[in-house]
Amino acid sequence: MIEGVASWLTGDSRIEVVHTGDNVDKLAADDQLQPDVVLLDLSLHGRMDLDNVAKLADTGQRVVVYSQFTGHGLILRTLESGAREFVAKHEGREHLVKAVVAVAADQPYVGPVMAGALISDGGADRPKLSEQERIALLLWFQSSSKASVARKMQVSPHTVDMYIRRARQKYEKAGRSAYSKSELLARAIEDNLVAPEELNGDTP
After folding, report:
1. Which site among 24, 115, 161, 174 is 20 to 30 Å from 91 CA-CA?
2. What would be the CATH architecture of the domain defined by 131-200?
3. Where in the sequence of the chain do the CATH 1.10.10 domains occur?
4. Phi then psi for 50, rounded to 5 degrees?
5. Is the pLDDT of residue 11 over 90?
6. Are 87 and 37 in contact (CB under 8 A)?
7. Hey, is 111 helix, strand or coil?
């Protein structure tokens, strides 16, 4: 399995596999080994271990979870534990490569299985965002900087920052704090403010 996945990844010129293994101890302990992305199977040595996600995320690693187990509750728990993205094994090479490349660039990529889990999670209170706040979030999720969002919206970077800050404040008031970009993205998809397919294309 490891050799097959490594072959998939190295088949893309943007990706170099720098380490493979069947446990996370070396990655968590070795300050010299700092890959751009860690691709992590949830089941190692026949045991499901979500603590590995949190252990790696706490050290600053960008984690993409790759698993055959695709229950919506499990996917949401992996994201809450700090994973940037979740890719199901049956989604194949295309989604896996796109997720790894996106996460390495601090960009979102939401595959079909992860999107289904996020959209199904509708139990919490949903804050109301203005259309400008929603557009600012979407453009920010699509890009790497608030300056590029400002250019597209024809407003100042300060205004973009205000829109994003307001959205965060509204989620905090609703009891669903979103401190990171990936957390805010998850909230926006959960609440149907952003559609997963919008993340991979231009905003109308």
Report:
1. 24
2. Orthogonal Bundle (1.10)
3. 131-200
4. -70, -20
5. yes
6. no
7. coil
Q: What is the pLDDT of residues 169-184, one digit of tens each?
A: 888 877 788 878 888 8
Answer yes or no: are the C-beta atoms of 116 and 176 closer than 8 Å: no
First to last CA, the chain: 41
For the chain, give every residue range classified as CATH 3.40.50.2300.
Answer: 2-120
Question: Residues 6 or more apart from 192 whose CB is under 8 A from it?
Answer: 119
> Tokens for 31?
């300050």
Give the position of tokens 């070795």: 30
Contacts of 198 (CB under 8 A, 6+ apart): 138, 142
81, 53 contact by CB (below 8 A): yes
Q: Is the pLDDT of residue 93 over 90?
A: yes
Q: The dihedral of CA 122, 128, 132, 136: what is its sign?
A: negative
Quote the CA–CA distance of 55 and 144 in Å, as a whole number: 26
- Domain 2-120 belongs to what topology? Rossmann fold (3.40.50)
Six-digit token string for 49: 């271990």
pLDDT, tens digit, for every residue of 41-62? 988 777 777 888 888 888 878 8
pLDDT given at position 204: 44
